[in-house]
Amino acid sequence: MFHRLLTDEMWHFYNGAPVTVHLIDGQGVYQKKILGGHPGEGGVFQVMFEAGGWFAAEGAGGPVGAAGKRGRVGAGAPG
Q1: Is the Cβ–Cβ distance between 35 and 18 less than 8 Å?
Q2: How many whole angstroms separate alpha carbon 17 and alpha carbon 44?
Q3: Are the CB atoms for 51 and 15 separated by under 8 Å?
Q4: How many CA atoms are closer than 13 Å to the CA of 27, on its beta-carbon side?
Q5: pTM reported for the whole predicted model
Q6: Which residues, 6+ apart, have CB-to-CB distance to 53 below 8 Å?
């Protein structure tokens, strides 16, 4: 389910199954990133999302909670 980002967020991948993240930025441009997996196959180990965009995530073959270990850092409340 998409939700609007109120602050910048950076997601980090640690291990386990990859997570597919979807972002529609403030200009309406869609991006899809694979958080985790193999870099040679398009996987990345961190993804930055800017405030104001729309964001959703899904685990490989199941809900995000069943996917790999990951963390996120938010930038705090917008000024």
Answers
A1: yes
A2: 12
A3: no
A4: 2
A5: 0.71
A6: 4, 5, 23, 24, 25, 26
